Amino acid sequence: MPTPPRDATTYRTRVRRAVSRGTVTRRLADQPLRNLGVLGAGLVLASTAAFGGLEPVEAAGPAPFELGAQVTAAPFEITVDRAVWVDELPGVYLLDDSNRWLALVATVVNTHTESLGYELTEAVMLVGVEGLLREPLEGTAAVVSSEQSVLADGSRLSPVQPGLPYEMVFLFEQDGSVPPPTEVTVQIAAHTWRADSFDGFFSWLDPTVVAEGTVPIRPAVDSTDGEAAS
Amino acid sequence: MSVGRRAGATLMVLAALAAGRAVSTAFPLDDRLDAPFVQSGAVGEVVELRYASVTAGDPEGSRRIDTLDALLESPGIWLVVPLTVVAKGEPRLLGYAAVRGSDGRTYRADGMRSQFVRSTAQPGIPHYGSVVVELPPSAAAGAQLLVSLDGGDQRGDGMAEIDLGITAADVEQWAATLAPVDVPWASDLAEQP
Amino acid sequence: MTTWWRRNRWGVIGLPFALVAALVASSDRVSSYYWHEGLHDSQQVEPGEWLEYRDVLFDGAGEHPLEVAIHLDGTATTTQPWDSEIPFELPDGARAIRVDLTLRAAPDMILRGCFLALRGSDGTRYDYANDAAGSLQPSSPCVPQLTPGPSPSLGAIDADLSPDGSEARPETWSVAPVVIVPEDADITEVLVWWQQPAYAVLPLD
């Protein structure tokens, strides 16, 4: 910056004279390209404001979840028929006999081209239910099930074969000292088929909630909840 | 350098880059580099792999199986394929078994329901196990059995691909069967006691 | 005028060394994926002699020296399993071979987690399996079943494990594990190892 002369000429006059003499333009042209690039980029970004470019991103919220409605949660299609709780189930063992099972009875279809496993566990969660034994997912109040069993024979649903409609149940163990709930909030999460950024290997990653809702939960009609009337 | 020479050099660099890109993307190598070395066969034929010889027996099917631990029922049909393994070089525990359906989907035998019944095979001594898979009836006719050594990674090693010879008539019969197919434990003895 | 060779003589001389250095520098996978994933580092003796076997073992408590002397007393075809009430059900075309070994080591040497195999003249390896042929032999083929001596450390959970109540292992002892092999196998060596890639080779007479 040149030191301002001591004479009385105003600053504005001096600028006007410099522009008309081309000093300003020449100064701009003499700037390193880098600076002009930054300036240019800033101008382009600012101009996107006219088209909504500077608006905050609004993520689409999850769809409402209802019993009996099919949810497309890649790589599955999941329909939760009913929510029941029961004090014990044959073939699955509580960590403490005084605890109970909260059960989401569902029909699940794997729509991928290969057998799946962990993806089903990550797809269905209970939110904000007191006394669940499993730790919630980090930073959330959502808990995944500890067992996924086939209703017809009580076996663990593993592997989940493609194209087969499994009638099964997601089981969540709840501390017996907590009174059984009358309603529960359910979240269904979809995965994304993408390459792992570390080794380029493709798998189902990033479970994201696509459906959420609160539904009533009632005691199972009998201890073999697969036979409970809906 | 003159402008002309500089422009020429720039064009050469761009041409080299374009040629490099064309060469590296012209041939679909990635799938081939990752693919296993497939040995095809049919039921009853010995398939020779680097680490073992494997022979598949005639598959049986039903809506139910009896694994001695549990009675399992499928929304589709169960396939039980007997598998004889003779290890080569050192004892081998085969880690990968799956059925490729006629729909092109892969139904793996690696869990609590669909399972690969086998133990470690001592070289030269036949080991008898089975591959148990549930799948939709529509995918069963024309299905193939896939067997390999490493459960986690089948790239670059031998894989047996065995045509199970399943017909639509077989599938129709099995889909209507509720009598469970027995799944014996893995053993080195040819006949189960 | 100097030739290309003369001008580049140091580069040409250095080239083989540079190539070797480049290969070695990028060969860490050969170590992890090949050398340590098999039996590659043998210690051997003449038939009938004692083998002073040396290795370094890694367990939950770190590194331990392994020092044990092994002698192959002999092998014999047998029909009975070692130290078991349950008889063999041998498959057709198989036979059972008893391996008589005498070992010598300090009673506090950790030797429990060992492996034993027979190797044929064609290089095929036949492993000892304690549940082979329908029987149930001792799980470790190289220590006495009732006085096996100390176990490898499992690290932090050692404090939670119940203490081993067995008596101290003697300084010299014998074992007789039985291995199932095909009838026509031509067995030439007994192999014993704790942690790959090191292993002991005891040739048959």
Per DSSP, what share of the residues of chain A sits in E-state strands of 2 or more residues? 25-35%
Cα gyration radius of chain B (Å): 24 Å
* Biggest chain contact: A-B, 19 and 25 residues
- The stretches of 5 or more residues of chain A where confidence is low (pLDDT under 50) are 223-230
- Structural class by secondary-structure content of chain A: alpha+beta
What are the SSEs and their pairings?
The complex is a heterotrimer of chains A (230), B (193) and C (205).
Chain A: H1 11-20, H2 23-30, H3 33-47, E1 63-64, E2 70-73, E3 76-86, E4 100-110, H4 118-123, E5 124-127, E6 142-144, E7 147-150, E8 166-174, E9 183-195, E10 202-216, E11 218-219
Parallel strand pairs in A: 1-10, 3-11
Antiparallel strand pairs in A: 2-3, 3-4, 4-8, 5-6, 5-9, 7-8, 9-10
Chain B: H1 3-26, H2 29-34, E1 37-42, E2 46-48, E3 52-56, E4 60-66, E5 71-87, E6 96-100, E7 106-108, E8 115-117, E9 127-135, E10 144-148, E11 158-163, H3 168-175, E12 181-182
Parallel strand pairs in B: 1-11, 4-12
Antiparallel strand pairs in B: 2-3, 3-5, 4-5, 5-9, 6-7, 6-10, 8-9, 10-11
Chain C: H1 4-7, H2 9-25, H3 28-34, E1 41-44, E2 51-59, E3 62-78, E4 94-104, E5 115-120, E6 125-127, E7 172-175, E8 178-182, E9 187-193, E10 198-203
Parallel strand pairs in C: 1-10
Antiparallel strand pairs in C: 2-3, 3-4, 4-7, 4-8, 5-6, 5-9, 9-10
What keywords describe this structure?
heterotrimer; A: 230 residues; alpha+beta; Immunoglobulin-like; 2 domains; six-stranded mixed β-sheet; five-stranded mixed β-sheet; 4 helices; 11 strands; 17% helix; elongated; disordered C terminus; C: 205 residues; mainly beta; five-stranded antiparallel β-sheet; 3 helices; 10 strands; 14% helix; extended
